[in-house]
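Quarterly update from the structural biology core.
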Amino acid sequence: MRVMLSSVPPTTKLLWDTIYESDVVFPDLERSKMPDDVANAKVAIIADKYLATGFMLAGVAAFPVRDAQEAASEFQRILSEDRFDVIILTERLSESLKNQREDLVARGKARPVVAVVPDFEGPTGERLRELHVLISQSVGAELKFKS
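Predicted structure, tokenized:
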């Protein structure tokens, strides 16, 4: 069975066919093969202007902020609008928004999902500590990690 590669450059098609010389060709990724809720998810990021700009270039709704106070007001505004399925926060901003994030979880709503990413200064380790506590609570025992 041969699959058309309409969005792949001709040189890539030729290279693929040359290397594998078979009827199996790398399948084209199509949005139609994703579940509708994933393909149509609306994503936002609250971050410093540099990280926000990078995500904006990738098609994410970006809300650049200068400090934690600005981030808190943007976070509340975005939540009140109820337009986004995923809200991305930097690790440093996430630490300052911990109470708001916990309130969101306490409401029991499945969306928006809050994703935490490191910023340009690198990871702080706070998200890993949060995950450690959550996993320890769910299994009923304190987990120990080897370093």
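The helical segments are 10-20, 36-39, 49-57, 68-81, 91-96, 98-106, 126-139.
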